[in-house]
């Protein structure tokens, strides 16, 4: 491992984070910029990011692995939706196969970063086993994900401090937790809650999901017969890419269909849920969302496992507000009392862009919430720094791939022309207009996104041009490979 060897601290490129974004960036650097030196600094003890950190029962992807996996190393397992162990093994095997693991320095946490205009270089303070050292690089790619690995989003549940049982956040699930025969309450309605409910119901006495409002479900087969046909009848090289293309097109179509025809999409999705429920079950209130499809991310339930647990009688759903938590459960606004041995707060993640590092330019720190994102990848007024921020409406890795290709293209252009830096900028008139008229970088109204905006921990986006949020993989990839990279950009 690179962390066990003497490693250079002065490099051409530094990637921060060895999750799926960082591994993808490493691949593109070494294949598209083969003459540049690079390393990957990872704060934890192993690669994998989310798929190494989270340990709760049943944790799985909420996107298909054919598009969530790497374009250059296609997913080849039978299940399109996979659990964390399989995903982590896929990442480890891929990093080893392409020698990316040799570039990773583990337990190296980046605490501060400063760009020097005089030196045209980044300097960063890196903590490793109680020691702080300085690393320098011309270019930085932030593959740090979108949430805080060290602190969860605080669950605002009235009276939670009264509870005498266990309160558990899924981000820090105790691996030795025994929940057999327990009464469990899950608070939340997102992907984590929908994953936990059927998996906990296998051993628990009763699992009750408490949600303020329901979400939309996409019920996918555990194994798609069409994928099996492709694999059985076509060469592996072709079948892998054809299956990936199928999921790319279907995902894009699904999103666009929901946004263009929300009422019809609502009916189609509701019909799918109705087919999973016992005959005569009323959709309202537990399965009738108040918002339009894709105002929040959809919940995927492979093979309808969520609804199987609900039909079994070992899982229940309550759509209500929490009045207060008591010593042995909670009271809902309706007056209903629920008993519990455990409460699980599946209420979202604490969004953090940049892994928690303090970033400054010429010694002057700034708040990223005051900055706009250029092409969904670079911060206004910050040179030679690319963020990998995934899609809200598709697989994370698709946007990660577009960002890595954009970054390496720009780096190669600068290396070839002798230019030292690329800095996104707004004219005073543009700044004034966009301050008045901007949009969220992540176009979702989920609680964790709203919380990030309230805490001012997420950059802003514009309504037009290079400052619009990303939303379409095909458009974004074309622009990353062939689009204009001089508009709104200052090179020196």
Chart the SSEs and their pairings.
Elements: E1 10-16, H1 20-32, E2 38-41, H2 50-53, H3 65-68, H4 84-97, E3 104-105, E4 109-116, E5 121-128, E6 131-142, E7 166-168, E8 183-187, H5 191-200, E9 206-211, E10 217-220, H6 225-233, H7 236-260, H8 262-274, E11 299-302, H9 305-312, E12 315-319, E13 322-326, E14 329-332, E15 337-339, E16 342-345, E17 358-361, E18 364-365, E19 373-374, E20 378-379, E21 385-387, H10 396-417, E22 422-424, H11 428-436, E23 439-440, H12 447-455, E24 460-461, H13 473-482, E25 489-491
Parallel strand pairs: 1-2, 1-6, 2-3, 4-17, 6-21, 7-16, 8-9, 8-16, 9-12, 10-11
Antiparallel strand pairs: 4-5, 5-6, 13-14, 14-15, 17-18, 19-20, 22-25, 23-24
Helix pairs in contact: 1-10, 5-9, 6-7, 7-8, 10-13
Pfam family, one: Pyr_redox_3
GO molecular function, one term: monooxygenase activity
InterPro entries: FAD-binding_MO, FAD/NAD-bd_sf
Question: Could you give a short description of this structure?
Answer:
The chain is of the alpha/beta class and 492 residues long. It is built from 13 helices and 25 strands. It has helices at residues 20-32, 50-53, 65-68, 84-97, 191-200, 225-233, 236-260, 262-274, 305-312, 396-417, 428-436, 447-455, 473-482; strands at residues 10-16, 38-41, 104-105, 109-116, 121-128, 131-142, 166-168, 183-187, 206-211, 217-220, 299-302, 315-319, 322-326, 329-332, 337-339, 342-345, 358-361, 364-365, 373-374, 378-379, 385-387, 422-424, 439-440, 460-461, 489-491.
């Amino acid at each position: 491992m690179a962390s066990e060897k003497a490693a250079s601290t002065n490099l051409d490129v530094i990637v921060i984070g060895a999750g799926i974004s960082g591994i993808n960036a490493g691949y593109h650097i070494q294949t598209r910029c083969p003459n540049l030196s690079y390393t990957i600094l990872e704060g934890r003890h192993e690669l994998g990011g989310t798929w190494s950190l989270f340990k709760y029962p049943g944790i799985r992807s909420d996107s298909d692995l054919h598009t969530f996996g790497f374009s250059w190393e296609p997913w080849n397992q039978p299940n399109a939706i996979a659990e964390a162990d399989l995903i982590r093994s896929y990442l480890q095997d891929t990093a080893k196969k392409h020698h990316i693991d040799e570039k990773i320095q583990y337990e190296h946490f980046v605490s501060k970063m400063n760009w020097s205009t005089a030196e045209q270089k980044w300097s960063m303070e890196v903590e490793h086993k109680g020691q702080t050292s300085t690393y320098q690089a011309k270019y930085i790619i932030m593959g740090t994900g979108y949430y805080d690995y060290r602190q969860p989003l605080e669950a605002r549940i009235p009276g939670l401090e009264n509870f005498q049982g266990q309160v558990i956040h899924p981000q820090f699930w105790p691996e030795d937790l025994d929940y057999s025969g327990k009464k469990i309450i899950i608070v939340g309605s997102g992907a984590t809650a929908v994953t936990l409910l059927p998996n906990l119901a296998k051993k628990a006495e009763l699992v009750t999901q408490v949600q303020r409002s329901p979400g939309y479900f996409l019920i996918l087969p555990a194994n798609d017969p069409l994928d099996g046909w492709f694999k059985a009848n076509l060469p592996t090289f072709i079948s892998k890419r054809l299956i990936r293309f199928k999921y790319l097109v279907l995902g894009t179509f699904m999103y666009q269909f929901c946004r263009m025809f929300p009422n019809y999409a609502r009916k189609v999705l509701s019909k799918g849920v109705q087919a999973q429920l016992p005959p005569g079950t009323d959709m309202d209130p537990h399965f009738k969302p108040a918002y339009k499809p894709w105002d929040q991310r959809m919940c995927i339930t492979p093979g309808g496992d969520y609804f199987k647990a609900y039909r079994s009688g070992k899982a229940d759903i309550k759509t209500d507000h929490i009045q207060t938590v008591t010593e042995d459960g909670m009271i809902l606004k309706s007056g209903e009392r629920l008993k519990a041995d455990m409460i699980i707060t599946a209420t979202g993640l604490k969004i953090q862009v940049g892994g928690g590092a303090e970033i400054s330019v010429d010694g002057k720190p700034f708040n990223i919430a005051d900055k706009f994102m250029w092409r969904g990848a670079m911060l206004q007024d910050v040179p030679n720094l690319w963020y990998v921020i995934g899609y809200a409406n598709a697989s994370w890795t698709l946007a990660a791939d577009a960002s890595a290709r954009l970054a390496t293209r720009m780096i190669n252009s600068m290396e070839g022309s002798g230019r030292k830096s690329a800095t996104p900028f707004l004219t005073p008139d543009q700044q004034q207009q966009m301050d008045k008229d901007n949009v969220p970088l992540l176009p979702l109204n989920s609680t964790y996104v709203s919380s990030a905006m309230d805490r001012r921990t997420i950059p802003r986006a514009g309504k037009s041009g290079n400052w619009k949020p990303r939303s379409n993989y095909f458009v974004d990839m074309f622009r990353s490979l062939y689009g204009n990279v001089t508009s709104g950009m200052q090179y020196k």
